[in-house]
Backbone:
């Protein structure tokens, strides 16, 4: 065996071009004859369109054409595809690529201008006259299902999109035999993705040549290819979708957007490449977000704090249309009952239409919400029974001897959710050690003497990662000895190139620098699924490992013939196959590749297929379950409501770490995203459906100056579900962050009896809770 | 017809003469006019900092500045931070070694902002580094790798 890379902190292969300004994002691509598009977007949350007059805009010099839906061929005047059909969807509403006769959220695309430059296209938008008839809008999910509530769509019977439920165990028995039943009501809010690169699309149509090509800032190029080809009624083979460098995704770039239909249609109509780059204000109103979810939960427990059952109801904001099936509500319920062995669960969710931007997953999808809900109930039990929160957790964790542990819930594909491996209590201990939890009370008392309020909060989570079906890899040694590696998985900064190069290099006996990596181009690899749900390492990892193993075996088998040696005596190092003990006898991988791809009239060696190449779709045989415990230490100023996270400790287990540096970065970045959810990020609409937070002065993202250093420690419990023992790591930082921070704030304000029922916890809201608590105490 | 002006700008040591629309931002001029796409436009309202370039050595937001305002000035972009022979600057090297980037989109602004900052403050504390990049948003890294990179680069530069 050659050099080991798996487990090493290999510096990223992606970085040299990105730190010198040579990345290639969508907006960096230019083409001969390329035109630029800008979208006119609905200024009202709900309205009928009486008429659209584009004549003044079309007359502006530099404008090539203005399109409304009516300007497309009749077969294209139809709504978009439902990407994830499900029986739960009672009222299926997908939007038209450009609005037909009704707009249902501010930001819905109404018309598109194509011009010589983006500036001219934007000038022309101001010259389009739309005559709207305003309709009542529904915004508040808590009243959206009431009789007489305004309807989000003119032609639906109610605002109920659908209902679903997670139910297992004997819930009646659990509540009948409980010593106590406690309940909690709380609202959760998650904002948008706010990738630093907004979305963007370039389309080029070449009907006599390569067909229709799309360069788009996306997480799932294959999903877009299929959705677009299906919508157009054309073969997938004639549609190529490329995700070049993508500047962050975090969920909302995993879908299929109106612009990914409209830009191809207008490029085709004009016979020129067309580029559209979303501006930041558009990102706030036209890129999907996650937003509101209300929970009412009851927990049944014993006097010792052993939890027996969870039941309740959830109201989930869907936004105006359904771009992403029921993935969000589903992934909100799926994680119940979290890291705990709670035998019975019965929680239903009402999915509600509102006149706001459609909903899609943001980092973690519904998992942060489901885990937040469970952790809230743990905190409730702790508070009500006076048992320390860490002790309640210890009494309820799923233990290692219970693995594999079936919760009773089902995964998205219908398979049972099974916790495959992990030691949750040991992880808690590691997190508490890292946080110096034992000495916290002293720190708290010392600070209190100075008039400062410190608090500490714990959370634990599980995360289903690595969902199937696969993410394949092709490994091919070429004549130079360099190794071409291709996969479908798109990267938005996760370091796939480095991770996959490490696996292939180690397995094949070459250097990671010898790997020529290409991904996320439907023209170069036949099929892929998408970079979502922390699934890439647990799918591409095994397929890259398997494909390179096959190439290695083939190389050794051929080398044994060429060198007249036994395969068992051969080893590959630095791309050279040598005979152990006879160092002069060698053949390079490049030479073997040439023998397997001979020139005319020569023959491929007998018993071999052409090419030193293999493809594999090996993945994970189920969802590897990652887990973690987090400890947040905060300081709260009860006078101003300011919260400062002083210290943040993570113990995480994502199985075998291929590159610990990359895992560390995923965890730290994920935690900061979660702290942003807990404290800052709020997409606000007024009661008419007008968005009030559409720039970074109004919508707050976490900044370096406010964020703590995050300390991370790992356990590496190999997953039995794939060849590398890996689990996903992309969302494990985000999922447990908000409950830890919120618990810490409550702990800091214990003397004010503050119980938080909403996040993000902004200063004004916190001050109101403190005043309320103080008033109650005074009574 | 759009209002235009002739300008002369030195970018990464090279002089450029151009006729630009008066409304064109410096960032758009660099990217579209000169084809230098290393500078990224993240918010175009002066908050995210991705478009930061150095104007006569000082960090400025190229989305908030017009190209005509750069007339007669020297601009340094991310493409100009390495030596002419391609040797990375200590800060670039530290970003690579300390995992100071993931998607790379905010990176040009982080590198230019910190290049200017470290010139002014060669021995900063972690808090000072965090304040220095408080006008640059990164969604991927949680800032930690960037802060570590800046502190490491400062140390390297002091030792030279």
Residues:
């Amino acid at each position: 065996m050659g050099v080991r890379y798996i487990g090493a902190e290999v510096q990223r292969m992606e970085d040299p071009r990105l730190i010198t300004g040579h990345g290639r994002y969508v907006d960096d691509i230019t083409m001969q004859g390329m035109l630029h598009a800008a979208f006119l977007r609905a200024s009202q949350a709900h309205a009928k369109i009486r008429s659209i007059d584009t004549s003044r805009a079309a007359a502006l010099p530099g404008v090539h054409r203005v399109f409304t839906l009516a300007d497309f061929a009749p077969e294209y005047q139809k709504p978009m595809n439902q990407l994830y059909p499900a029986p739960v969807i009672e009222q299926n509403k997908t939007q038209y690529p450009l609005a037909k006769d009704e707009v249902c959220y501010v930001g819905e695309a109404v018309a598109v201008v194509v011009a010589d430059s983006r500036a001219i296209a934007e000038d022309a938008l101001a010259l389009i006259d739309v005559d709207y008839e305003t309709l009542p809008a529904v915004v508040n999910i808590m009243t959206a299902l009431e009789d007489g509530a305004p309807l989000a769509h003119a032609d639906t019977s109610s605002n109920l999109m659908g209902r679903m439920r997670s139910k297992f165990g004997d819930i009646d028995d659990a509540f009948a035999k409980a010593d106590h039943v406690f309940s909690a009501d709380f609202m959760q809010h998650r904002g948008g993705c706010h990738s630093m690169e907004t979305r963007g699309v370039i389309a080029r149509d070449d009907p006599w040549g390569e067909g229709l090509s799309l360069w788009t800032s996306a997480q799932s190029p294959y999903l877009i290819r299929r959705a677009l080809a299906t919508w157009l009624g054309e073969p997938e083979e004639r549609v190529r979708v490329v995700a070049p460098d993508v500047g962050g995704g975090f969920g909302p770039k995993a879908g299929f957007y109106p612009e990914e239909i409209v830009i191809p249609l207008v490029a085709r109509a004009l016979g020129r490449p067309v580029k559209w780059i979303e501006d930041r204000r558009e990102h706030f109103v036209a890129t999907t977000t996650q937003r509101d979810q209300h929970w009412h939960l009851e927990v049944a427990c014993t006097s010792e704090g052993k939890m027996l059952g969870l039941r309740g109801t959830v109201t989930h904001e869907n936004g105006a249309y359904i771009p992403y099936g029921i993935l969000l509500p589903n992934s909100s319920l799926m994680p119940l009952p979290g890291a705990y062995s709670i035998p019975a669960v019965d929680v239903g969710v009402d999915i509600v239409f509102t006149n706001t931007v459609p909903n899609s997953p943001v980092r973690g999808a519904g998992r942060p919400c489901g885990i937040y809900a469970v952790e809230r109930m743990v905190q409730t039990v702790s508070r009500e029974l006076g048992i320390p929160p860490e002790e309640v957790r210890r009494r309820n964790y799923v233990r290692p001897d219970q693995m594999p542990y079936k919760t009773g819930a089902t995964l998205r594909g219908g398979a049972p959710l099974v916790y495959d491996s992990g030691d949750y209590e040991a992880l808690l201990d590691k997190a508490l050690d890292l946080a110096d939890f034992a000495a916290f009370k002293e720190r708290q008392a010392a600070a209190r003497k100075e008039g400062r309020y410190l608090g500490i909060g714990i959370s634990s989570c599980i995360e289903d990662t690595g969902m199937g079906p696969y993410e394949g890899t092709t490994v091919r040694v070429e004549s130079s000895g360099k190794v071409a590696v291709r996969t479908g998985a798109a990267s938005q900064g996760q370091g796939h190139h480095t991770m996959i190069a490490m696996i292939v290099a180690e397995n094949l006996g070459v250097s990671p620098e010898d790997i020529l990596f290409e991904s996320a181009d439907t023209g170069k690899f036949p099929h892929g699924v998408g970079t979502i749900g922390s699934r890439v390492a647990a799918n591409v990892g095994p397929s890259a490992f398997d494909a390179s193993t096959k190439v290695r075996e083939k190389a050794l088998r051929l080398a044994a013939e060429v060198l007249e040696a036994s395969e068992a005596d051969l080893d590959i190092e630095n791309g050279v196959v040598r005979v152990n003990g006879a160092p002069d006898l060698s053949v390079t991988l490049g030479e073997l590749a040439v023998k397997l791809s001979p020139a005319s009239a020569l023959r491929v060696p007998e018993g071999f297929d052409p090419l030193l190449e293999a493809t594999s779709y090996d993945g994970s045989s189920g969802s590897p379950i990652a887990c973690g415990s987090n400890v947040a230490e905060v300081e709260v100023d009860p006078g101003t409501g300011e919260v400062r996270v002083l210290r943040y400790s993570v113990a995480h287990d994502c199985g075998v770490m291929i590159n610990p540096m990359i895992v560390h970065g995923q965890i730290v970045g994920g935690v900061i995203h979660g702290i942003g959810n807990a404290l800052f990020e709020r997409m606000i609409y007024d009661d008419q459906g007008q968005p009030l937070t559409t720039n970074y002065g109004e919508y707050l993202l976490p900044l370096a100056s406010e964020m703590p250093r995050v300390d991370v420690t790992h356990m590496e419990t190999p997953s039995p579900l794939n060849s590398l023992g890996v689990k996903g790591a992309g969302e494990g930082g985000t999922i447990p962050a908000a409950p830890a921070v919120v618990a810490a704030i409550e702990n800091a304000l214990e003397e004010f009896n503050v119980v938080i029922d909403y996040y993000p916890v902004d200063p004004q809201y916190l001050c109101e809770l403190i005043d309320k608590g103080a008033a109650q105490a005074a009574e | 017809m759009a209002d235009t002006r002739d300008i002369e700008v030195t970018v990464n040591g090279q002089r450029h003469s151009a006729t630009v629309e008066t409304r064109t931002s410096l960032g758009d001029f660099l990217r579209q006019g000169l084809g230098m796409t290393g500078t990224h436009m993240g918010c175009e309202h002066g908050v995210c900092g991705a478009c930061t370039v150095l104007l006569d050595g000082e960090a400025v937001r190229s989305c908030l500045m017009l190209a005509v305002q750069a007339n007669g000035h020297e601009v340094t972009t991310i493409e100009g931070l390495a030596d002419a022979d391609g040797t990375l600057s200590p800060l670039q090297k530290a970003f690579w070694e300390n995992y100071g980037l993931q998607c790379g989109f905010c990176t040009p602004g982080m590198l230019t902002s910190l290049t200017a900052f470290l010139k002014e403050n060669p021995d900063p504390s972690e808090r000072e580094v965090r304040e220095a990049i408080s006008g640059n948003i990164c969604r991927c890294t949680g800032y930690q790798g960037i802060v570590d990179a800046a502190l490491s680069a400062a140390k390297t530069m002091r030792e030279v």
